[in-house]
Write a structure and sequence with these properties.
This protein has one domain (6-216): Rossmann fold. The termini are far apart. The chain is globular and about 50 Å long. A five-stranded parallel β-sheet has the order 3-2-1-4-5, with helices on both faces. The protein has seven helices and five strands, in the order βαβαβαβααβαα. By secondary structure, the chain is α/β, with parallel strands linked by helices. It catalyses: 7-carboxy-7-carbaguanine + NH4(+) + 2 ATP = 7-cyano-7-carbaguanine + 2 AMP + 2 diphosphate + 2 H(+).
Protein backbone atom coordinates (compact mmCIF):
# COMPACT_ATOMS: atom_id res chain seq x y z
CA UNK A 1 0.00 0.00 0.00
CA UNK A 2 2.98 2.33 0.51
CA UNK A 3 3.33 2.65 -3.26
CA UNK A 4 -0.40 2.97 -3.91
CA UNK A 5 -1.90 6.08 -5.44
CA UNK A 6 -3.41 8.38 -2.84
CA UNK A 7 -7.03 9.44 -2.86
CA UNK A 8 -9.04 11.76 -0.65
CA UNK A 9 -12.46 10.25 -0.01
CA UNK A 10 -15.34 12.29 1.43
CA UNK A 11 -16.90 10.16 4.17
CA UNK A 12 -20.10 11.23 5.93
CA UNK A 13 -20.81 7.95 7.69
CA UNK A 14 -23.74 7.29 5.38
CA UNK A 15 -24.52 4.44 3.03
CA UNK A 16 -23.30 6.12 -0.16
CA UNK A 17 -19.98 7.52 1.02
CA UNK A 18 -19.13 4.26 2.78
CA UNK A 19 -19.68 2.36 -0.47
CA UNK A 20 -17.46 4.84 -2.31
CA UNK A 21 -14.70 4.38 0.29
CA UNK A 22 -14.90 0.61 -0.26
CA UNK A 23 -14.75 1.12 -4.04
CA UNK A 24 -11.70 3.37 -3.83
CA UNK A 25 -9.93 0.88 -1.60
CA UNK A 26 -10.85 -1.97 -3.98
CA UNK A 27 -9.29 0.01 -6.85
CA UNK A 28 -6.02 0.01 -4.95
CA UNK A 29 -6.00 3.57 -3.63
CA UNK A 30 -4.46 4.54 -0.31
CA UNK A 31 -7.52 6.25 1.12
CA UNK A 32 -7.45 9.44 3.16
CA UNK A 33 -10.95 9.83 4.60
CA UNK A 34 -12.31 13.35 5.11
CA UNK A 35 -15.35 14.21 7.20
CA UNK A 36 -16.83 17.52 8.33
CA UNK A 37 -18.14 18.72 11.65
CA UNK A 38 -20.05 21.52 9.99
CA UNK A 39 -22.64 22.40 12.61
CA UNK A 40 -25.06 19.67 11.58
CA UNK A 41 -27.87 18.77 13.93
CA UNK A 42 -27.20 15.03 13.62
CA UNK A 43 -23.94 14.32 15.44
CA UNK A 44 -24.31 10.55 15.10
CA UNK A 45 -22.99 10.69 11.53
CA UNK A 46 -19.51 11.71 12.71
CA UNK A 47 -19.36 8.68 14.99
CA UNK A 48 -20.43 6.52 12.03
CA UNK A 49 -17.80 8.15 9.79
CA UNK A 50 -15.10 7.18 12.26
CA UNK A 51 -16.45 3.62 12.43
CA UNK A 52 -16.57 3.03 8.70
CA UNK A 53 -13.22 4.71 8.03
CA UNK A 54 -11.56 2.46 10.56
CA UNK A 55 -13.37 -0.67 9.36
CA UNK A 56 -12.41 -0.06 5.73
CA UNK A 57 -8.77 0.58 6.45
CA UNK A 58 -8.15 4.23 5.70
CA UNK A 59 -4.63 5.63 6.00
CA UNK A 60 -5.92 8.62 7.93
CA UNK A 61 -9.32 9.99 8.91
CA UNK A 62 -9.44 13.77 9.21
CA UNK A 63 -12.40 15.71 10.61
CA UNK A 64 -12.47 19.38 9.59
CA UNK A 65 -14.58 21.79 11.64
CA UNK A 66 -16.72 24.34 9.83
CA UNK A 67 -19.54 26.56 11.04
CA UNK A 68 -22.13 26.30 8.32
CA UNK A 69 -24.72 26.63 11.08
CA UNK A 70 -23.62 30.27 11.37
CA UNK A 71 -25.31 30.98 8.03
CA UNK A 72 -28.12 28.43 8.45
CA UNK A 73 -30.60 28.10 5.62
CA UNK A 74 -31.09 24.36 6.03
CA UNK A 75 -32.99 22.01 8.29
CA UNK A 76 -29.69 20.22 8.85
CA UNK A 77 -27.91 23.28 10.24
CA UNK A 78 -30.74 25.34 11.76
CA UNK A 79 -32.74 23.69 14.54
CA UNK A 80 -35.57 26.18 14.03
CA UNK A 81 -36.30 24.56 10.63
CA UNK A 82 -38.05 21.21 10.98
CA UNK A 83 -36.82 18.17 9.07
CA UNK A 84 -39.72 17.15 6.80
CA UNK A 85 -41.14 13.69 7.40
CA UNK A 86 -43.23 13.61 4.25
CA UNK A 87 -42.15 13.50 0.63
CA UNK A 88 -41.58 16.96 -0.82
CA UNK A 89 -41.21 18.36 -4.32
CA UNK A 90 -38.43 20.57 -5.57
CA UNK A 91 -35.25 21.21 -3.60
CA UNK A 92 -36.03 20.30 0.02
CA UNK A 93 -35.17 22.31 3.14
CA UNK A 94 -32.55 19.66 4.01
CA UNK A 95 -30.37 21.08 1.22
CA UNK A 96 -27.34 22.76 2.84
CA UNK A 97 -26.36 25.80 0.72
CA UNK A 98 -23.18 25.12 -1.28
CA UNK A 99 -22.21 22.20 0.98
CA UNK A 100 -20.62 19.93 -1.62
CA UNK A 101 -18.81 22.89 -3.18
CA UNK A 102 -17.28 23.76 0.20
CA UNK A 103 -16.48 20.13 1.03
CA UNK A 104 -14.83 19.44 -2.32
CA UNK A 105 -12.81 22.65 -2.07
CA UNK A 106 -11.31 21.52 1.23
CA UNK A 107 -10.78 18.01 -0.14
CA UNK A 108 -8.97 19.61 -3.06
CA UNK A 109 -6.67 21.51 -0.70
CA UNK A 110 -5.82 18.36 1.25
CA UNK A 111 -5.26 16.44 -1.98
CA UNK A 112 -2.68 19.03 -3.03
CA UNK A 113 -0.89 18.73 0.31
CA UNK A 114 -0.87 14.93 -0.03
CA UNK A 115 0.14 15.12 -3.70
CA UNK A 116 -2.96 13.10 -4.49
CA UNK A 117 -4.67 13.53 -7.84
CA UNK A 118 -7.91 11.71 -7.04
CA UNK A 119 -10.91 12.75 -4.96
CA UNK A 120 -13.92 10.49 -4.40
CA UNK A 121 -17.41 11.70 -3.49
CA UNK A 122 -20.63 9.73 -3.05
CA UNK A 123 -23.06 12.00 -4.89
CA UNK A 124 -25.89 10.33 -6.75
CA UNK A 125 -28.33 11.65 -9.34
CA UNK A 126 -30.84 8.76 -9.26
CA UNK A 127 -32.01 8.03 -5.69
CA UNK A 128 -31.32 11.40 -4.10
CA UNK A 129 -33.29 14.31 -2.67
CA UNK A 130 -33.07 16.75 -5.57
CA UNK A 131 -29.92 18.54 -4.44
CA UNK A 132 -28.32 20.60 -7.24
CA UNK A 133 -24.79 19.72 -6.08
CA UNK A 134 -25.36 15.99 -6.69
CA UNK A 135 -25.58 16.24 -10.49
CA UNK A 136 -23.03 15.20 -13.15
CA UNK A 137 -22.80 18.78 -14.41
CA UNK A 138 -21.71 19.97 -10.97
CA UNK A 139 -19.00 17.32 -10.66
CA UNK A 140 -17.68 18.05 -14.16
CA UNK A 141 -17.65 21.79 -13.50
CA UNK A 142 -15.82 21.38 -10.20
CA UNK A 143 -13.20 19.13 -11.79
CA UNK A 144 -12.60 21.73 -14.51
CA UNK A 145 -12.27 24.46 -11.88
CA UNK A 146 -9.93 22.30 -9.77
CA UNK A 147 -7.51 21.95 -12.67
CA UNK A 148 -7.53 25.69 -13.29
CA UNK A 149 -7.18 26.75 -9.66
CA UNK A 150 -4.39 24.53 -8.35
CA UNK A 151 -0.63 24.29 -8.63
CA UNK A 152 -1.06 20.59 -9.46
CA UNK A 153 -3.41 21.31 -12.32
CA UNK A 154 -1.29 24.10 -13.77
CA UNK A 155 1.78 21.85 -13.64
CA UNK A 156 -0.02 19.07 -15.50
CA UNK A 157 -0.91 16.74 -12.62
CA UNK A 158 -4.60 16.40 -13.43
CA UNK A 159 -7.04 16.37 -10.55
CA UNK A 160 -9.79 13.76 -11.01
CA UNK A 161 -13.14 13.96 -9.20
CA UNK A 162 -14.67 10.48 -9.03
CA UNK A 163 -18.41 10.04 -8.45
CA UNK A 164 -18.85 6.30 -9.05
CA UNK A 165 -22.42 6.16 -7.72
CA UNK A 166 -23.76 8.91 -9.96
CA UNK A 167 -25.97 6.69 -12.15
CA UNK A 168 -26.76 3.95 -9.59
CA UNK A 169 -29.97 3.52 -7.62
CA UNK A 170 -29.84 2.66 -3.92
CA UNK A 171 -30.44 -1.03 -4.52
CA UNK A 172 -27.51 -1.24 -6.94
CA UNK A 173 -25.30 0.71 -4.54
CA UNK A 174 -26.08 -1.69 -1.70
CA UNK A 175 -25.45 -4.74 -3.87
CA UNK A 176 -22.10 -3.29 -4.97
CA UNK A 177 -21.16 -2.61 -1.36
CA UNK A 178 -22.15 -6.11 -0.31
CA UNK A 179 -19.78 -7.55 -2.92
CA UNK A 180 -17.00 -5.43 -1.39
CA UNK A 181 -17.76 -6.57 2.15
CA UNK A 182 -19.35 -3.36 3.44
CA UNK A 183 -21.09 -3.73 6.80
CA UNK A 184 -23.99 -1.29 6.44
CA UNK A 185 -24.93 -1.67 10.10
CA UNK A 186 -21.99 0.67 10.78
CA UNK A 187 -23.54 3.44 8.69
CA UNK A 188 -26.04 6.19 9.45
CA UNK A 189 -28.21 7.93 6.84
CA UNK A 190 -30.91 9.65 8.90
CA UNK A 191 -31.31 13.44 8.84
CA UNK A 192 -32.27 13.45 12.51
CA UNK A 193 -30.38 10.51 13.96
CA UNK A 194 -29.91 10.49 17.71
CA UNK A 195 -26.45 10.81 19.24
CA UNK A 196 -26.46 7.08 19.93
CA UNK A 197 -27.20 6.24 16.30
CA UNK A 198 -30.96 5.61 16.23
CA UNK A 199 -32.63 6.62 12.95
CA UNK A 200 -36.05 8.23 12.79
CA UNK A 201 -37.33 6.00 9.97
CA UNK A 202 -39.47 8.84 8.58
CA UNK A 203 -37.26 11.39 6.86
CA UNK A 204 -36.43 11.39 3.15
CA UNK A 205 -33.00 9.83 3.72
CA UNK A 206 -34.46 7.00 5.81
CA UNK A 207 -37.10 6.30 3.14
CA UNK A 208 -34.51 6.08 0.36
CA UNK A 209 -32.30 3.86 2.51
CA UNK A 210 -35.13 1.47 3.39
CA UNK A 211 -36.28 1.28 -0.23
CA UNK A 212 -32.72 0.50 -1.26
CA UNK A 213 -32.44 -2.48 1.06
CA UNK A 214 -35.82 -3.75 -0.12
CA UNK A 215 -34.77 -3.38 -3.77
CA UNK A 216 -31.46 -5.13 -3.13
CA UNK A 217 -33.13 -7.97 -1.21
CA UNK A 218 -30.79 -7.34 1.70
CA UNK A 219 -31.89 -7.21 5.37
CA UNK A 220 -32.02 -3.67 6.73
CA UNK A 221 -29.98 -3.69 9.94
CA UNK A 222 -30.59 -0.02 10.62
CA UNK A 223 -31.47 0.71 14.26
CA UNK A 224 -34.68 2.74 14.25
CA UNK A 225 -36.23 4.67 17.09
Amino acid sequence: MSNAKKAVVLVSGGLDSTTVLAMARDQGYACYALSFDYGQRHRGELVAAERVSSALGDVEHKVVRLNLDSIGGSALTDVSIAVPEEETTGIPVTYVPARNTVFLAIALGWAEVLEAQDIFIGVNAVDYSGYPDCRPAFVSAFEAMANLATKAGVEGRKINIHAPLMAMNKGAIIRAGQELGVDYSLTVSCYQVTDDGLACGRCDSCRLRRQGFESAGVPDLTRYR
